[in-house]
């Protein structure tokens, strides 16, 4: 499992790193992209585990 641990360390962003652009669907099914949201002003991106999962 050492390889998995090393991969996670390599994928860990540092404070100040630029987030890669990504697109997701909102609750109404509309596409949202990070690059479009940033055009409107500062954005905070937070990720959390889905409710009732082991994460």
Structure summary:
This protein is of the alpha+beta class and 55 residues long. It has helices spanning 2-11, 34-39; strands spanning 23-25, 31-33.
Annotate the secondary structure layout.
Elements (H helix, E strand, L loop, with lengths): L1 H10 L11 E3 L5 E3 H6 L16
Antiparallel strand pairs: 1-2
Structure description:
The chain is an alpha+beta fold. It is built from 2 helices and 2 strands. It has helices spanning 2-11, 34-39, and strands spanning 23-25, 31-33. It has a two-stranded antiparallel sheet with strand order 1-2. The longest helix has 10 residues, at 2-11.
Quickly list its features.
55 residues; two-stranded antiparallel ribbon; alpha+beta; 2 helices; flat
- SSE arrangement, N to C: HEEH
Q: Between the first and last Cα atoms, what is the distance in angstroms? A: 18 Å
Assembly form of the protein: single chain
Number of helices: 2
Mean pLDDT: 79
Tell me how many strands there are.
2
The profile of the biggest β sheet is: 2 strands, antiparallel
User: What would you call the shape?
Assistant: flat
Strand order in space, largest sheet:
1-2
Specify the structural class: alpha+beta
Which bin fits the share of residues in helices?
25-40%
Low-confidence stretches: none
Q: What share of residues are in beta strands?
A: 5-15%
- Rg (C-alpha, Å): 15 Å
């Amino acid at each position: 499992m050492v390889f998995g641990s090393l991969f996670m360390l390599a994928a860990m962003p540092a404070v100040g790193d630029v987030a890669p652009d990504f697109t997701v669907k909102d609750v109404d099914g509309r596409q949202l992209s990070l690059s479009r949201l940033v055009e409107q002003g500062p954005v905070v991106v937070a990720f959390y585990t889905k409710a009732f999962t082991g994460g």
